[in-house]
Amino acid sequence: MKQPKHFVSCDWGTSNFRVRLIDFNSLEVIKEHKTEMGVKKLYQSFLSEGKADRQAYFSEYLLSQLQQIVDINQELTIVACGMITSTMGMIDMEYATMPISDKVDTLNIKHLDLNDHIDLILISGVKTTNDVMRGEEVQAIGLMKYLKNDCYLLLPGTHSKHLKFEGGSYNSFQTFMTGELFEIISQHSILKEFLMSSKMNEESEKAFLEGVRKGSKGELLGSLFGIRAQWVAQAQSLQEEGKSKGKDTEMYQSNFYFLSGLLLGNELSYLQNQSVEVVMAASGVLSGLYQIALKELKVEGFTSLSGEVLEKAMIHGQKMVLEQHFDQLQII
Ligand SMILES: O=C(O)C(=O)C[C@@H](O)[C@H](O)CO
After folding, report:
1. Which Pfam families does the annotation name (predicted)?
2. Are 78 and 120 in contact (CB under 8 A)?
3. Same CATH topology for 6-148+311-328 and 178-300?
4. What average pLDDT is seen over the chain?
């Protein structure tokens, strides 16, 4: 089967949906379309509309979005991964098991015909005896060419994944709910009114580092309430002077970073005493925060891959799967 000129990369996670038209050779993104219709939201609509065919419901959404970037009446191949293959996605696929590597032969793959012209290749997630992931395994495979030695590959996010890379393959991993916990605490807990997001400044960096140190020493739970307690104490002493404590922007900004530091410090704590290399791939603000935290914890031999590299990682991984599966494709 001859190589396609392009393919569609679909990244369909819990909260977001993204399709990208990709040049097969250069991996350049020709067109891109994103929505916030992650599988969770679409699954809710599927249930509330009382529809019977989940696969058809998800396929319809996929095609309706795809036509925003490409003519869907032509022959196309889509490679998709993420929560799309979960119990609340298009089709429930069994996880593959570790190890995984750039041979991609241990992943579970399924082919579906979306219409007469479009072939959909679904990549299942990966599990161990006590953990699961869907989507990050494809990013991790796409990042393998950047890993020179045995290491931990860190993929920070809502569910941060730490993958252990040994002897040319990923053999195990662990999920840390760092991002999700941050969101829950900052948006739904008693602490939410004492937190304010802002660009990091000298004061908030100090607070972040203090959080990292405490979090890394197992003081996460014992430190959280201090955010409220400190405010209450200040309000009381002002009250004694006949004054009232209003909104304290600087304090709230520092609290925001303190909370972030606590959670990151806790996630990264076990790496302090390891003699193995650490490679971290994240973008933007998240990348900066993890770099500061890893430095503070004196994690030896850590390197950081750029946001651009991470952006391309899933596409790389999907192309590798596609290359393995040319022969089974009816149309390209
Ligand atoms: O497979 C599942 O059910 C998950 O919840 C996996 C999840 O952690 C993703 O890997 C990232 O959100």
Report:
1. DGOK
2. yes
3. yes
4. 94
Q: Is the CB of 158 under 6 A from ligand 1?
A: yes
Q: Is the pTM of this model over 0.80?
A: yes
The per-residue pLDDT for range 221-273, each reduced to its tens digit, is 999 999 999 888 888 888 888 877 777 899 999 999 999 999 999 999 999 97
Burial of 226 (0-12, 13-18, 19+ CB in 10 A): middle
Ligand 1: nearest atom to the Cα of 125: 1
CATH class of the domain comprising 6-148+311-328 = alpha beta
Per domain, the residue ranges of the chain are 6-148+311-328, 178-300
Q: How far does the centroid of ligand 1 lie from the alpha carbon of residue 152, in Å?
A: 19
Cβ contacts of 13 within 8 Å, gap of 6 or more:
38, 39, 82, 83, 134, 135
Q: Does the structure show a pLDDT above 50 at 288?
A: yes
User: What is 178-300's CATH number, 3.30.420.310, 3.40.30.10, 3.40.50.1110, 3.30.110.40?
Assistant: 3.30.420.310
Distance, first Cα to last Cα, the chain: 8
pLDDT tens, position by position, 132-178: 999 999 999 999 999 999 999 999 999 999 999 999 999 999 999 99
